[in-house]
TrEMBL record:
InterPro entries in UniProt: Glyas_Bleomycin-R_OHBP_Dase (IPR029068)
Gene3D superfamilies listed in its UniProt record: 2,3-Dihydroxybiphenyl 1,2-Dioxygenase, domain 1 (3.10.180.10)
Protein name: Putative glyoxalase superfamily protein PhnB
Domain of life: Bacteria
Species in which this protein is naturally found: Afipia massiliensis
């Protein structure tokens, strides 16, 4: 039997599948944030931000979306907040208003952003 320890070097990356209640609106939302989209097929896009990516899927379960949280760890949260707050996401995408950065009990400063499907994003920094 192969041990997990031997398999670890073979792991290249992990990516999440993020649900979309309205597939096209969600794609536009993420593009507004700065993600580059690549269509994979009629039911999924790869959404890339720098070297990181996730799959946006044309699939939606409310309970899953409402409980899904994603974290983007950034080096300059204030610069990201200026970008996010300038996008008028609430007006343009009818989402929950983003919350400005604040220090959390676990030690990170976090700005909260909800996507059109209810997925919560933590834009975070340890400084």
């Amino acid at each position: 039997m192969t041990t997990t320890k031997k398999l670890l070097p073979a792991v290249l990356k992990m990516r999440t599948f993020v649900p979309a209640k309205n597939f096209e609106e969600s794609r536009k939302f993420y593009e507004a944030l700065g993600f580059a989209s690549t269509k994979l097929n009629d039911k999924s896009f790869e959404m890339r931000l720098g070297s990181e990516a996730f799959f946006l899927q044309n699939f939606y379960v409310k309970e899953f979306a409402d409980n899904l949280m994603m974290q983007v760890l950034v080096s300059d949260l204030d610069e990201w907040w200026d970008h996010i707050s300038g996008l008028s996401l609430e007006r343009n995408f009818h989402v929950v208003p983003a919350r400005p950065p604040s220090l959390q009990p676990w030690g990170l400063r976090v700005a909260y952003v909800w996507d059109p499907s209810g997925v919560l994003w933590h834009f975070a920094s340890d400084s």
